[in-house]
Design goal:
This protein is an alpha/beta fold and 534 residues long. It has three domains: 100 residues, no CATH class; 265 residues, no CATH class; 117 residues, 2-Layer Sandwich (Beta-Lactamase), CATH 3.30.450.20. 43% of the residues lie in helices and 18% in strands. It has 17 helices and 22 strands. The strands form seven sheets. It has a six-stranded parallel sheet with strand order 4-3-2-13-1-12, with helices on both faces. A five-stranded antiparallel sheet has the order 19-18-22-21-20, sandwiched between helices. A three-stranded antiparallel sheet has the order 8-9-10, with no helix packed on it. α2 crosses α10, α7 crosses α9 and α10 runs antiparallel to α11. It is rod-shaped, with a radius of gyration of 38 Å.
């Protein structure tokens, strides 16, 4: 490839540097494209979600949420009261709680069928509690519909408790609405709205998009199928990326028996959200959350986490976790892939590269973690793989290149040693890599002194600059040249030479400048003498 002669030498150097190091850009681009393909095929989704969980567990623990009290039905309760719990017992429990004037009561138990004795009593109690919210299950691919207690108002007192499970079975997202023949609100949203009512916060259409829910100053952006690390995730209804407070001791929990036996201070429930649900292991109403390592939490606790997060957003105590648009995500991965290529290109020694890679990967971990603390979910696994993959590809290229270089130099050395004319071979850094004895005799230095040196190491600056320009011109234009040049050898004798330069490339992509010299010093002296006599 040749370039116009009017392009300045500086730009010529930049152009040549670009084409000499095109592998850095091509490698980073190829690795990024491969990772984005793997990402959109879902092959990185599981490990990226594990990285998300690790960041959740590493961050400082969120404080205990005193707005929510859980009344758990545990194993001793089942032994004492039986299962399912009779309606009469539930009616007594609800009356006891209501006397403490809670802000709302959430009954996370299916009660679509009577469980006598006491069914009529339970119906009467439910009708007298406008701040009571019961649950229903909206039919999906996994299970049929389970209706809520018919005495509850379906608009304000019923919420579905369906949960979104990720590919590893964990709950990281919540639901606000589900659309069937009508709009269903979630159990968490219904209870959050009843709690927020005391602050004058109501569900409204967002000014950003009238289809988005706004509570207070918080806008709930629907989570899409490919947001974050997700690939083709369930996105029907109105999902959102939740943030769980912790695995244990996040909410005050008491047992049903303790409440019925008067062992709990009634003031504990005043002005709070009270959730009633199963905590008995034998009933298997448990779901894994990001903190589950490995134990899952009761379903009622997962619901409490979802309610807590909605309240935090609506009251401004937290902000939502944001994800990157796809183009920015691609640039983020490309940047780390490019950094891996550049480091491998610049630091070819194993020790230096290993040390630098360790520092860089530590920086990636720290950067991703700090961004997560700032409520940004940046991809972690793709840039990690991009950095390592790009580095390995460049190292493999160099290993191949060095092997070809060694074979090429041995071959060239064997050839030029048989040629009487002075011959030199330079690499792209203008250093001698192959020389014959005739060249060493011409310049007056031993071969071992000349190897891996440049013209600036041996010749006067103006002479070295002359040689460097001629060599650089060949590397840029890739067109063979022939010039007359002058230099001063080791003995101080000025010599005039005629140099023919040509460019060669081996199977590894290494470029060589081969120079063949003819000493024309005596010829020039005779020509000068004839001119003087004439």
């Amino acid at each position: 490839m040749s370039y116009p002669s009017f392009i300045p030498a500086f730009w010529n150097r930049l152009i040549r540097r670009f084409f000499n190091q095109h592998r850095v850009i091509f490698t980073a681009s190829g690795i990024t494209l491969a990772l984005l393909t793997l990402r959109f095929l879902g092959l990185l989704q599981a490990i990226e979600l594990l990285a998300f969980d690790a960041f959740v567990r590493l961050r400082p623990a969120l404080p205990k949420d005193d707005r929510i009290i859980i009344i758990g039905i545990n194993e001793p309760d089942l032994q004492n009261l039986g299962w399912p719990v009779p309606d009469s017992t539930l009616a007594t429990l609800l009356e006891t709680i209501a006397q403490s004037q809670p802000q709302a009561i959430g009954l996370d138990l299916y009660r679509d069928l009577p469980v006598n004795p006491g069914h009529e009593e339970l119906k009467q109690v439910m009708q007298q509690l406008p701040n009571l919210v019961g649950i229903e299950r909206v039919a999906d691919k996994k299970a049929p519909n389970i209706p809520a207690p018919p005495v509850l108002n379906p608009t304000t007192q019923v919420g579905f408790n369906n949960v979104l499970l990720d590919i590893d079975g964990k709950v990281r997202r919540g639901l606000l609405y589900v659309h069937t023949e009508r709009v269903h609100k979630s159990f968490a949203l219904q209870l959050a709205l009843k709690y927020l009512d005391q602050f004058g916060i109501e569900e409204t259409a967002s000014s950003v998009n009238p289809k988005y829910l706004q509570l207070g100053e918080a806008v709930f952006y629907p989570f899409k199928s490919y947001d974050g690390a997700y690939v083709n995730a369930e996105a029907s209804g109105y999902p959102f990326l939740a943030d769980f407070r912790g695995p244990r001791d996040t909410f005050t929990t008491v047992s049903m028996s303790e409440v019925l036996n008067g062992e709990v201070d009634p003031q504990l429930f005043r002005d709070r959200l009270v959730l009633i649900g199963l905590t008995a292991i034998s009933l298997k109403d448990f779901v894994p959350i990001p903190y589950s390592n490995p134990d899952p939490v009761p379903g009622v606790e997962a619901q409490a986490n979802l309610i807590s997060f909605i309240l935090d957003l609506a009251t401004g105590e937290q902000t939502a976790i944001r994800t990157l648009p796809d183009p920015i995500e691609g640039l983020w991965i490309f940047a780390w892939s490019g950094l891996g290529s550049i480091l491998a290109w610049k630091l070819r020694r194993p020790f230096q590269l290993t040390l630098s890679s360790g520092v860089t990967l530590g920086t990636l971990c720290l950067t991703s973690y700090v961004l997560f603390l700032a409520r940004w979910w940046f991809p972690f696994i793709p840039p990690l793989f991009g950095f390592v993959g790009s580095s390995l590809m460049i190292l493999i290229h160099f290993a191949h290149q060095e092997g070809e270089l060694k074979r090429s130099t041995e071959f060239l050395q064997g050839i030029i040693n048989t040629i009487p004319d002075p011959i030199f071979v330079k690499d792209q850094n203008h250093r001698w890599i192959v020389l014959n004895q005739a060249y060493a005799q011409l310049v007056g230095y031993p071969l071992q002194v000349l190897m891996d040196k440049s013209d600036y190491d041996l010749f006067a600056p103006e002479e070295a600059e002359q040689f460097w320009k001629q060599d650089e011109s060949l590397f840029v234009t890739q067109e063979s040249t022939q010039q007359e040049e002058g230099f001063t050898d080791a003995g101080g004798i000025h010599r005039v030479i005629e140099t023919k330069r040509s460019l060669h490339r081996d199977a590894g992509g290494n470029s060589f400048l081969v120079g063949v010299i003819r000493d024309i010093t005596q010829q020039k002296e005779r020509e000068a003498e004839l001119e003087r006599l004439a």
